[in-house]
Amino acid sequence: MTTAISVKNIGKQYKIGAAETKFRYNMLRDVIVDTVSAPIRLAKAMIGKSDRRQNQNYVWALKDVSFDLEEGKVLGIVGRNGAGKSTLLKILSRVTEPTVGTVSVRGRVGSLLEVGTGFHPELTGRENIYMNGAILGMRRSEIDSKFDEIVDFSEVTQYIDTPVKRYSSGMYLRLAFAVAAHLEPEILVVDEVLAVGDAEFQKKCLGKMGDVAQQGRTVLFVSHNMSAILRLTQEAIVLNKGQLIMRGPTQEAVDYYLSSGQSQAGERTWDVEDVPAASAPFTPISLKVKERGGKIVDTIRSTEPVIVEFEYKLSSPVTGLRVGLYVSTMRGEYVFTSFDTDSPELYEKFDSRNAGHYISRAEIPADMFNESRYTVGVNASSFGVRRYFMDENALAFNVDISGAPGTQWAEPRVGPVRPRLNWKIEKIGD
Length: 430
Prior knowledge:
There is one protein chain. The chain has ten helices and 20 strands. The protein is α/β, with parallel strands linked by helices. The chain has two domains: 257 residues, Rossmann fold (3-Layer(aba) Sandwich); 134 residues, Distorted Sandwich (Coagulation Factor XIII, Chain A, domain 1). It is globular. 34% of the residues are buried. About 3% of the residues have low confidence.
């Protein structure tokens, strides 16, 4: 089969504190100058590579990554935050250049990397659709044939002639996904953007991606939703700290990813290098699973409550901060989500948090879990404003169901929860 993407020994280095410019829209002369100067920049990067490695002001987001992908294949990309997933997709989409190494892409690339990528804010939704199609090399008649389908899918019919700078983030996302998925590029690159939409739209997007995959187009898909990865991809690669550490059938890759890097003792701590600079002023310290008596455990009894503690520091005040727990099955299916300001009393008291040292502590009641292994993710954000920190796979724990409801029966119970319901049996008549 023909190779659609060939990645050879690529690396990407960033200077800490020097973010790439977002939402920059260049004139033609800017593009020409940038193209001409690219080899010079690359040569300089190569010359200074050895010195930079010794410079703590630089960090390698990707290091010596190589793989090939055949046409018509769907490849999942998984890894923890900061593993280099988004950087890899930006390189493949020509949004940024690798510092070292080479990338060969065969075919038109449609990308959905983040809200705003590829759209000009001053243009209307209609104009952006045609602009993106033209960039992909499509004729106007081809775009015309897809236009109504794009608008219907995005659900922005009423605002299609409004400049997209006036769109909400949800509207922006819906239109961006619709354009990327419907203009039929040979290669579709999708980052974890579905988390921005509502549940119904996420379902709709995943369905469309399934259709795209069945059409034989090449797809690269980054997601923290392991169920989506398992359903939509045939193969997956695992990235860790910028390096490709595993490639295989999706099932094997997901199992490898979920079982790696987790605490086996009911406790996770974060080193300074594990915390992105963008998390400031929030700094995670540790996550612990405890018995009610205070002992840190890796295995809990389903018949007893369990305590989850998240310890962190704030270097400056934060308004609207909420710290959350995401408990999931080993396949990435959410069991529940809970935040430390869910109660009105705590919301009122800690809506604004001063700089200092904190522990957010939650008690999970008894008779909650079925027998299995579960992951705990953590999140710190100001709702609708900013996400400070997220580790979706911080640690894992096992559940022992000895004495749980129904254990007198030999057959296993289905589902992640095993509640003790208040049953009553009433005999009516003789």
